[in-house]
Automatic annotation (TrEMBL):
Keywords: Signal. This is CNP1-like uncharacterized domain-containing protein. It comes from Ottowia oryzae. Residues 1-36 form the signal peptide. InterPro entries: CNP1-like_dom.
Length: 185
């Protein structure tokens, strides 16, 4: 007598589930690969534009930056100096530090996409701007000195909208003045 063996053919539902899982895995792999490639291209291809000279600034009308209690230094940004380059993702501005015996200014830039800042030049009131020899971008996070912790405050306070720049300097100033904190990490 001959044994009858049933051939097991996959059920249509099982076939669809297996195909869906395979398709999802392929799409995920493609998406992650594309994202990684974009991130690497961004790093490899990004180039800073030519840095314009420091703009003139005013001591009146500064947008104050919160400083720790008891600090004798008051800091603020001159809103008229804020410029945006959407192509490079850089916002530049002049920040002014006023102490009991001195007024100093720094011409700086922030890259919201990378969470970095850079000081282009410094000035003691009444003197010429002095170009900063350090051309490296520094992380905004982890700066322990009160004098260099302000870029993160500015990014959170309105210069950045998450990891992107706001559209206009007026948008940035409005956000800085309202005290809203963006979702900047």
């Amino acid at each position: 007598m001959r044994a009858i063996t049933a051939s097991r053919t996959p059920q249509p539902a099982r076939v669809r589930q297996a195909m869906a899982r395979t398709l999802a895995a392929c799409l995920l792999a493609i998406g992650l690969g594309a994202h990684a490639q974009y991130a690497n291209d961004d790093i490899a291809d990004w180039k800073e534009d030519a840095v314009p000279p420091p703009p003139a600034y005013r001591l009146s009308g500064l947008v104050d930056i919160d400083m720790p209690n008891g600090s004798s230094i008051k800091m603020g940004v001159d809103p008229k100096t804020i410029t945006i380059n959407q192509a490079t993702g850089i916002v530049r501005y002049v920040v002014v530090a006023r102490g009991p015996s001195a007024v100093n200014a720094a011409y700086e830039g922030i890259r919201c996409a990378t969470g970095e800042f850079r000081v282009y030049a410094r000035q003691v009131q009444g003197s010429e701007w002095v170009t900063n020899t350090d051309t490296e971008w520094k992380p905004m996070r982890g700066q322990s000195s009160v004098v260099v912790s302000h870029p993160l405050q500015l990014a959170r306070g309105g210069m950045c909208n998450g990891s992107t720049l706001r559209q206009t300097p007026n948008d940035m100033v409005r956000e800085l003045l309202t005290g809203n904190q963006s979702l900047y990490n």
